[in-house]
Amino acid sequence: MSDRKFTPSPSLAVVLIITLTSWMIFVPLVNPIAIPLGNNTTGVISQASIENISPYTDYLKYLILLFTPPLLTLIVWKFGKISLGEYLHSVINITAKTLSQNWFLATVTGILLLAWVINIPFNQFPITSLLRDSFHEGEFLGFWPNFSQLEKPFINTVLIHGYGMDVFPTEVAMRLISNDNGIVLTRLFVNLQNALTAVGYFWILWEITGLVGLKKSKLPIFLLFCLFACIFDGIFFKFDGRRGTWFVFQLAITLRYFRLFIPWEKPEDLKSNHVRDNRHFHSRQAIILSLLVGLSIPGGFLYVYDRAIYFLAVYLITCIISLFLPSPIRKTWLTVTSTGVVVSFTAIAIFLGLDQVNAIASQIAYWGKYGRYISFIPLPPFQMTFISQKFWLSILIQAGVLTYLTWDLISHKFQLKPFVRKHLFTLILLSAAGVYMRITLDRSDLGHAYHGAMMTALLSVYLLLLAYRRYLENPLHKLTLTLPQKLSIGVLLIFILTSESGFNVLEASQKLSRLPAAISIPDAELLKPDYLEAKNVMSAEIANQSCFFNVTSEGLWYYLYNKPSCSKYSYVLYAKPTVAQNRVIEDLETTQPPIILLTNDVWFQNPWDEVLKADSASLIYQYILQQYRPHKFVQSHWFWRRSDMPPTFATTNQFNGAIDVIPESPIRVGQPSVLTGWGVIPETRKPADAVYLSVGENNQLIAVGEVNIPRWDVASVLGIREYAQSGWRLRIPTASLPSGEISLKVWAYNSENHQLTQIGEAIDIIKLSQDGART
């Protein structure tokens, strides 16, 4: 028999520590590695040659990360023979004891959370970045002229979200503007709203952690959930941003109020109608909190309309719940919150006037009636994929909770008082999760699915804490971990934290240090060149107008020209209902702005559903084609001037163009259908100034297109060099076309005499619905 001594089997804890530690050290060093390509002897033009990076770079990175952990293992084994582990044992114990102190945990976690707030919520709209999203940033820039120049802006403005989100940041920024820096200042306050919302969520987590009655300090658990909430943000849910600011603080205060008494745990307490101990109900604090909730409810409608409705629903549910709670809890909640609602509503009515309050109510009614139809995107099919779970996981969790509650209600023999008291906070959080699902259901794209899952995530945290208290708290307190196990858990946690880019303290500190210089950047440095040019070129003409209007749904233009909208519906995208389109036409007839913006190369359609503006706002579009005429191109931005009369239809004996491509008939509703060809004005030997599309015998104008596509073939065949840019492309608004058999005509427009001459022959097509039937 051999007396050889064998080395013990590898410790999984040690393997984990070595692997993760080596990666934490070497990943930051490996990321910047780039082996120069040198002389490109292959002659291949690719990303490797363009960026001068050798393809072997990635092989080197792989080998470093692959072999570093085993190499470190050899080093540890070598030093282990000289008892380095025993030497470090005391040092590690002291370090572990320090790390477990609450003050240390709070300090480190606080720094990480602050860094995350700065890097993520506070950076939603990077302050110094080029303004590329004229639609969303226009939502908080474009309403300012209305509120600064109109006497009663709420009557003459249909806000998209509410005053607190659409106007307030710009209003504060404009009071501090010093160097034509309104955009950066507005972004600053918008991002502050986002950061404040994150703080509100942390507060809710604090309240939830305190609801379950943990036997030991709840601080480490709370801090851990805050960290993991930041890590999982964007994976299973998304912090709601400034849209949810008011709501999250309302919910936090509500949870705080009902936390004033500890949930009953003994059967005899569930039947009691009195608070068990004065320590469980502090009347002064209860009055303050319930008053704040009541005051906030009318104020919420000034901040954001939909979230105000959500909390109103949660509040009404809590009022019903309070009927099953002890008298002090019930009476204080119902009477003081009602008093707060009356006081707040009265103050708002006095300050704004009842007419503006009625206008706000009418806007809420408008969004309630039409909102889901305007921006609806259907839920995708539920599948067992990571992307799909973002849509169905929240529904599954809520269904499971509701099933459990139903079963427990049956076990309580439908006695509501003990049932409600037992599940008080589950019911409150479930109601919040339920109303928040409207975000996902009304517009089921990925971003809204993230936001709609936020309250379900908070409900899940509460349920996890209940499970922890019931099943894990006592066993974990009795559990004794070895030093390698403690180290492996610590290293794993550090590895997870360092993998979250939002916890980058250095990056956060750099952003803060650059902030003073950033907020002085003038608007001109942040605008895209084409928008800056359009502002400079058109400002003189638009300066004398009392208002401005654009069909592109870009609020940025109202800010750039400092003009209120000529219609209460400044965003055509949200004026899809017939009643709203007719109101826009009435407003344009009343104000008659000389110059408007019709379209550009991005906003000719709605970005998320790709519906043409000529379809979604067909009445407005057709009105403009009749009452306005092409005026000026600035890059792709097509400005139109009001005309004294509609364009006239004329005939010509000369060859003025051709239709090269026509869609196959029949066409379906929503099917992308395009006409292409070329068009000229033979009398002046130049390309047509525009091409129009008409439908029916009455030649109803329904669409317009630019004439600027290169057609050297036309110029060559006809021997007229000026025709080189005579090509055109017309998108057919299929959804707004009349049903059945229709006749389309294309017209060349001459701006000198405001006349239209037909190009080619009429196009007879049949329009079908999407299911293949004639409409």
UniProtKB/TrEMBL annotation:
<feature type="transmembrane region" description="Helical">
    <location>
        <begin position="12"/>
        <end position="30"/>
    </location>
</feature>
<feature type="transmembrane region" description="Helical">
    <location>
        <begin position="391"/>
        <end position="407"/>
    </location>
</feature>
<keyword id="KW-1133">Transmembrane helix</keyword>
<keyword id="KW-0472">Membrane</keyword>
<feature type="transmembrane region" description="Helical">
    <location>
        <begin position="221"/>
        <end position="239"/>
    </location>
</feature>
<feature type="transmembrane region" description="Helical">
    <location>
        <begin position="449"/>
        <end position="468"/>
    </location>
</feature>
<feature type="transmembrane region" description="Helical">
    <location>
        <begin position="489"/>
        <end position="506"/>
    </location>
</feature>
<feature type="transmembrane region" description="Helical">
    <location>
        <begin position="101"/>
        <end position="122"/>
    </location>
</feature>
<feature type="transmembrane region" description="Helical">
    <location>
        <begin position="285"/>
        <end position="303"/>
    </location>
</feature>
<feature type="transmembrane region" description="Helical">
    <location>
        <begin position="333"/>
        <end position="354"/>
    </location>
</feature>
<feature type="transmembrane region" description="Helical">
    <location>
        <begin position="309"/>
        <end position="326"/>
    </location>
</feature>
<protein>
    <submittedName>
        <fullName>Uncharacterized protein</fullName>
    </submittedName>
</protein>
<feature type="transmembrane region" description="Helical">
    <location>
        <begin position="419"/>
        <end position="437"/>
    </location>
</feature>
<keyword id="KW-0812">Transmembrane</keyword>
